[in-house]
Amino acid sequence: MEEIKKISVVKKYTDVSELSETDMAMLKHAKEAVHTAYAPYSKFYVGCAVLLENGEIILGSNQENIAYPSGLCAERVAIFHAGSKYPNVPITAIAITVKAHDFLVKEPIACCGACLQSMSEFEMKFKKPMRIILQGEVGDILVAEGVKVFLPFQFWVEELKK
To answer: What's this model's pTM, rounded to 2 decimal places?
Structure first.
């Protein structure tokens, strides 16, 4: 028996002013995207901004549906739009923030597994990690270098591409 240990490291910033100008701008864009969310059922609004290597910024927000599984998270809305509009351009960073109707979100919210796996696909496609910036409505900001921080055992089988 062998024990495999994977350690995840994130940077925690207590104020947005500690971030680089690019990261601050990305969070600002994500907070703007929150306002386009369609979340009449959960009343939990998520905004996402994706920075592409060519400098383009793509926004996304969660889009719910009365048939719950038919909705889509903000991260996948943004990265799939980026992939369809700029199929050969890597994602360098993604910022995600949230707002709730009935309470103040004081902590960063991590991406769901489906979004992490989708983000992983883009990292694998371009062989480059993306910077992930997370913040609640207020409070600390978490920054990670790559999806593996949140999804250490990604689903990836190189042979499936052959």
So the answer is: 0.94
- Polymer length in residues for the chain: 162
Assess if residue 1 is contained within a domain: no
Q: For residue 55, what are the domain limits?
A: 11-161
pLDDT tens per residue across span 83-127: 999 999 999 999 999 999 999 999 999 999 999 999 999 999 999
Q: Give the pLDDT confidence score for residue 68 in this predicted structure.
A: 85
The answer to whether residue 3 is domain-embedded is no
d(CA 90, CA 94): 11
CATH code assigned at 133: 3.40.140.10
Q: Among candidates 19, 7, 27, 2, which has minimal Cα distance to 137?
A: 27
- Does residue 56 carry a catalytic annotation? no
Catalytic residue among 21, 75, 107, 158: 75
